[in-house]
Recover the amino acids of this structure.
């Protein structure tokens, strides 16, 4: 699993010495679901913090927080309007009761 995450290679390219790729993937997913990876990360992070190996400086510059170009003009939830086909002039408009509407 470490080889795969380090190289970024597809799961099918995991070397045979690590076993069948699908079993390696299944183990990876099991550990992901049961929180093993999270616990491992938190433990390593805590140890590095105690040793002073982590600098906790966070800076945010608003000039780098941009919306994706497709975010502009996105449809709002519940406000979906579909364009209707042009009304045909050959048939008269009727109401829900089946009577002709004034036109």
């Amino acid at each position: 699993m470490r080889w795969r995450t380090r190289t970024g290679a597809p799961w099918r390219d995991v070397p045979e010495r690590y076993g069948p790729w699908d079993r390696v993937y299944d183990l990876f997913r099991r550990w992901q679901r049961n929180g093993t990876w999270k616990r491992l990360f938190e433990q390593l992070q805590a140890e590095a913090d105690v040793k002073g190996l982590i600098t906790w400086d966070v800076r945010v510059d608003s000039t780098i927080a941009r919306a994706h170009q497709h975010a502009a003009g996105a449809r709002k939830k519940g406000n979906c309007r579909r364009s209707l086909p042009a009304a045909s002039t050959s048939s008269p408009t009727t109401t829900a009761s089946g009577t002709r509407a004034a036109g």
